[in-house]
Amino acid sequence: MHIDPAVYVRKAIRSVPDWPKPGVTFRDITPVLQDPRTFRVLIDLFVYRYMRQRLDLVAGVDARGFIVGSVLAYELNLGFVPVRKKGKLPYRTLAEDYTLEYGNAAVEMHTDAVRPGQRVLLIDDLVATGGTMLAASKLLQRLGANVHEAAAIIELPDLGGAQAMRDSGIPVYSVCSFSNSDP
């Protein structure tokens, strides 16, 4: 029996109701990472998608984007760039602010992390409202990079983040999606 690889990965994602607050269902990728077969299937999905595309770097968003992004960069023989939460990088940085439902935050990168014209794949574990991914893409663009695509394991379409990315001109790929009504 053959199972679709994306369905296989989706089935391994744990749903945690009422976390971090009542009414929110947290989509936990930890079981995907813990199981070697599922983790390999996930990485292979990304590798097969991007292996023949002309890319220069993978940029991973703090923190779970580091896990998938660094492995993917290794598999594609590309460099990896961390997009960190503000205050975590030791060298000269450039920051981009964004709004959260409970306040403001910022992401930053080293000013020499990308060169003008480089084609970058931006990756994170999840696209919800899109604030972090949009800020990271703006940061990459301010440094002269071309964001080839934004990628995530999970898309939460009800929150509109992936659509906001598409509306800004950046294609989005996700392995699977969960709606608010999914258990």
TrEMBL record:
Pathway listed: Purine metabolism; AMP biosynthesis via salvage pathway; AMP from adenine: step 1/1
Domain annotation Phosphoribosyltransferase: ranges: 52-154
Cellular compartments annotated: Cytoplasm
Reaction(s) catalysed by this chain's protein: AMP + diphosphate = 5-phospho-alpha-D-ribose 1-diphosphate + adenine
Any matching Pfam family: Pribosyltran
Enzyme nomenclature, EC number: 2.4.2.7
Entries under CDD domains matching the protein: PRTases_typeI (cd06223)
Main location: cytoplasm
Annotated keywords: Cytoplasm, Glycosyltransferase, Purine salvage, Transferase
PANTHER family membership: ADENINE PHOSPHORIBOSYLTRANSFERASE
Name of the protein in its database record: Adenine phosphoribosyltransferase
Species name: Yanghanlia caeni
Gene expressing this chain: apt
